[in-house]
Specification:
There is one protein chain. The protein folds into three domains: about 170 residues, Alpha-Beta Plaits (2-Layer Sandwich); about 55 residues, 5' to 3' exonuclease, C-terminal subdomain (DNA polymerase, domain 1), CATH 1.10.150.20; about 140 residues, DNA polymerase, Y-family, little finger domain (Dna Ligase, domain 1). The chain has 14 helices and 13 strands. A five-stranded mixed beta sheet has the order 5-6-1-7-8. The C terminus is likely disordered. It is globular, with a radius of gyration of 23 Å. About 40% of the residues lie in helices and about 20% in strands.
Length: about 400
């Protein structure tokens, strides 16, 4: 016998663009694009005209010439996310965050206290609208996978409950692209075999799906198509990495400009580490060249750190090694990811090198920014230069 539909997947609608429309009433009802060179987010008015996340800015404006383009404001999005997650955790202690704008909630234990899972979802949506001023879509189902699919189908600003007895009726007619983990490449492979719906994939033998897609992917997707997803809501799950990137457009960039962008990105990410009492061990440099090919360069440290100076030195070394390729092919995007994250309390004491002055500088800068705002103080390399920030390494999910 199947269990009860007690898992909620809550997903903020067109998150970055919705925050912009919330904060600027003149943008409401108008097509809004967040980001210039690359679309980081689009309002539903812009999406209706064909604009999509990660699309080039020029193409987006060709599709929607009357769109209002606004620069990203990551501090505003982070603040809105914190407010929404506070409501999640006030609803249930069993919260698994997936990204800045979505989470799973297990609410099965609330029936005798608050009400049914659907009633909990209704109240959650009302609170996010009233307290944060944003629309949120919620899917309710027996498993995380089905709840996530339900919230996507229910968008925008919807609530969809998939009761256990109608799971097949809901899932099997959907296109295979709705399966969690099916991107453009996997979808194309399935289409070549004539597989276009979840039901058609479910009808295959598992071995056939594995031959089509490879053992790991085939096994996973075939199980989902047959409604097998045993994963519980994981409240211990922590983000494995953090990152930021900047789209640079197509014009040539000088060495000084790239160094500035790198310093801005590292400065911001190092502060995020310290704010979260986290350290990292691996620095990853992400580049997109003028021919739209991508490359990554990484270095793993001997011991984890949250020190801006150490992280910046490593990133600058990685960038220096990539300069010949940049000179030959041009560059349209630069980004940094910090991975292998751990808690500061788990960090081993450092040996002889004295980073005391840098640590004090980090502390002073963090304190000033907390009190007077993120743009109140900069490192010398940034004086008089563009302080603009970009998106996280992964665009927001919508």
């Amino acid at each position: 016998m199947r269990g009860e539909a007690t898992v909620l997947h809550a997903d903020l609608d067109a998150f970055y663009a919705s925050v912009e429309q919330r904060d600027a009433p003149e943008l409401r009802g108008r097509p809004v694009i967040v980001g210039g060179g690359v679309v980081l987010a689009a309002s539903y008015e812009a999406k209706a005209r064909g604009v999509r996340t990660a699309m080039g800015g020029r193409q987006a404006l060709e599709l929607c010439p009357d769109a209002v383009v606004v620069p990203p404001r990551m501090e505003a999005y982070s603040a809105a996310s914190r407010d929404v997650f506070a409501i999640f955790r006030d609803t249930t202690p069993l919260v698994e965050g997936l990204s800045i704008d979505e989470a799973f909630l297990e609410v099965g234990g609330l029936r005798h206290i608050v009400g049914t899972p659907e009633q909990v979802a209704v109240r959650l949506r009302e609170r996010v609208r009233a307290e944060v001023g944003l629309a949120i879509s919620v899917g309710v189902a027996r498993t995380k996978f089905l709840a996530k699919v339900a919230s996507a189908v229910g968008k925008p600003d919807g609530l969809l409950v998939v009761e256990p007895e109608r799971e097949e009726e809901f899932l099997l007619p959907l296109p295979v692209e709705r399966l969690w983990g099916v991107g453009a490449v996997t979808a194309e492979k399935l289409h070549r075999y004539g597989i276009r719906t979840v039901g058609q994939l479910a009808e295959l033998e598992a071995a056939t799906a594995e031959r089509m897609l490879g053992k790991a992917v085939g096994t996973h997707l075939h199980a989902l198509a047959r409604l097998r997803d045993p994963r519980p809501v994981d409240t211990t799950r922590r983000r494995g990495s953090i990152g930021s990137q900047r789209a640079l457009g197509s014009r040539p960039r000088s060495t000084e400009e790239l160094d500035l962008f790198l310093t801005q990105i590292i400065d911001r990410l190092a502060r995020r580490l310290r704010d979260g009492d986290r350290v990292c061990r691996t620095v990853v440099l992400r580049l997109r060249f003028g021919d739209f090919t991508k490359a990554t360069r990484s270095r793993t440290l001997g011991s984890p750190t949250d020190r801006t100076a150490i992280l910046l030195t490593v990133a600058q070394t990685l960038l220096a090694a990539a300069r010949p390729e940049i000179a030959e092919r041009g560059i349209t995007l630069i980004g940094i990811s910090l991975s292998q994250l751990d808690r500061t309390e788990n960090m081993q004491p450092e040996l002889p090198i004295d980073w005391g002055d840098e640590q004090r500088l980090d502390t002073v800068l963090d304190t000033l920014r907390d009190r007077f705002g993120a743009a109140s103080v900069s490192r010398a390399a940034q004086l008089g230069r563009d302080p603009g920030w970009s998106s996280p390494v992964l665009p927001e999910h919508e």
